[in-house]
Specification:
18% strand, alpha/beta, single chain, globular, 7-stranded mixed β-sheet
Length: 486
């Protein structure tokens, strides 16, 4: 790969009849609930003479994606963590060939030879990274967000027709040298990062393309993720000097923790499963582990023993983490031990039709990582603010933990999250709620659920409640799922 100073952007217009016939490519297909098309996509890839192997990276799908991919001839690996970027990296790690072609799992009616077309510039060493150009016009986020921003901040890439497209070819060594994004910004971020790393960028016309469109409710989040990815890289490249953009991203991050946004993700599911994080999903408390990691253990112990009310104590604990970098918060969340059986239980619960969430009176930055580690649908927790990726010490209590102040039941408690979902008027209404906890602060939430369970109880009061069922482990809950209709 060349340095960016001498780098040229090479555009390779493909000729369908002039294809490489050498089996040189590892085709990687990140997939989440793609049973509708995955078999066809795998068979399509295997039929291409350039394909040496097909790897489907399954994001813990709850349909038959993995089985159908295997039956079609793919090697299936399970992603190490929820998120397309992680799946792409896992696929590159598993690949046996230097040339990697990424395909989406929802493609249909592809013309023959696309793997060969995309592989050819890499095989001939005329490009390190190749984007697919296809006949369908760009979507709304591409046209209204990605292209205008690239034109301003990275004009060298502005000519690319589909900067957000997931059909690409790249050298394995290049992919593994980059840090891939987790969300919707992964494709444009990978493009920019490859360019900034000195890769020669190519583009290949693959004709018309059909795939399932993103649901309308996803477009706003997608636009936010794409703009954040471009802004951050523009700043890192010295092409941006507007600190307000970082504050804008912080506001966007907080939207993902809001109850209104989370309820929009339910999409027809009538059953809800709430999993307490500390001591339930994880075996240890996040705040304690963060304090140990950052040398604040003595300070935190004193705060935990204070007689302050819950809100004041939470705010004082947050203040104790002031000046800690965001990467340290994330590192601890990624290392927390997950209780055995949780991932298997969450997967089966989602298969049974549950909308599954991690709920915590800790911090959203940690809870969201934990929920992705167990392949849950959402996380609800409080928001720590960061300025230039450094904790400000300011805490915003998630409004879902507060009930209507006009209600006699008003207060600060996880039970109010249950009430928020019961009061959600978006059809269909929630018909059944399960909740699992371990400590006294979970008591009201467990009682408000249709079925409440306690694991590794830290309070005898939970064990004395006849409506709360003690469980030895998450495997014991799997048997109860068998009685729930999807």
């Amino acid at each position: 790969m060349k340095s960016t100073e001498s780098q040229q952007i090479s555009v390779h217009a493909s000729v369908p009849g002039n294809l490489t016939t050498l089996a040189c490519a590892s085709v990687v297909i990140p997939a989440l609930n793609e049973a509708k098309h995955i078999g066809e996509v795998v068979a399509y890839a295997l039929a291409d003479p350039a394909t040496a192997e097909v790897i489907v990276v399954d994001d813990s799908s709850i349909d038959d994606t993995a089985r159908l991919a295997r039956e079609a001839g793919a090697r299936v690996v399970t992603s190490s963590m929820l998120g397309k970027g992680v799946s792409m990296n896992d696929g590159a790690t598993a690949a046996n060939f230097e040339c990697i072609v990424y395909l989406d799992g929802d493609l249909a009616n592809l013309r023959p030879g696309i793997v060969s077309q995309l592989s050819k510039p890499l095989h001939e060493n005329t490009a390190d990274f190749v984007k697919a150009r296809f006949g369908r016009s760009g979507g709304r986020v591409t046209e209204l967000t990605a292209k205008p921003m690239l034109k301003v901040f990275f004009p060298e890439l502005a000519h690319l027709a589909q900067p957000l497209g997931g059909i690409i070819a790249a050298k394995r060594s290049l992919v593994l040298a980059l840090n891939l994004e987790d969300g919707y910004g992964v494709d444009v971020a990978l493009l920019i990062d490859a360019y900034l790393a000195g890769a020669t960028i190519g583009e290949v016309d693959i004709g018309l393309l059909e795939h399932d469109s993103q649901p309308l409710e996803d477009l706003a989040l997608m636009a936010n993720e794409v703009s954040r990815a471009i802004y951050i890289r523009a700043k890192q490249a010295g092409r941006l000097h507007v600190e307000q953009v970082i504050a804008m991203y912080e506001n966007q991050r907080q939207v993902a923790a809001s109850i209104d946004f989370i309820q929009s993700l339910r999409r027809g599911r009538r059953k809800l499963l709430l999993l307490d994080m500390d001591g339930t999903v994880t075996t240890l408390r996040y705040a304690l582990e963060l304090a140990r990691y950052t040398g604040n253990e003595a300070v935190l112990s004193e705060l935990l023993d204070s007689t302050d009310d819950a809100v004041t104590r939470s705010e004082r604990i947050a203040e104790s983490f002031r000046f800690i970098h965001k990467q340290q918060f994330e590192a601890v969340a990624r290392k927390l031990e997950i209780r055995p059986g949780v991932i298997r239980f969450v997967n089966q619960a989602r298969r049974a039709g549950f909308f599954v969430g991690v709920i915590s009176d800790s911090y959203f930055i940690a809870a969201d990582i934990v929920r992705r580690r167990i392949f849950a649908d959402f996380a609800i927790a409080h928001i720590l603010t960061f300025e230039n990726d450094v904790c400000s010490g300011q805490l915003s209590i998630n409004p879902a933990f507060w009930c209507d102040q006009d209600s006699p039941e008003a207060g600060f408690d996880k039970v109010n999250v249950v009430r928020c979902f019961r009061n959600d008027t978006n059809p269909p209404r929630i018909e059944q709620i399960w909740a699992v906890g371990d400590n006294l602060n979970d008591l009201e939430m467990l009682l408000a659920a249709d079925k409440g369970f306690v694991i590794d109880s830290k309070s005898d009061e939970l064990l004395r409640e006849p409506r709360i069922e003690p469980i030895a482990d998450f495997d014991s809950l799997l048997r109860q799922l068998d009685t729930v209709g999807s």
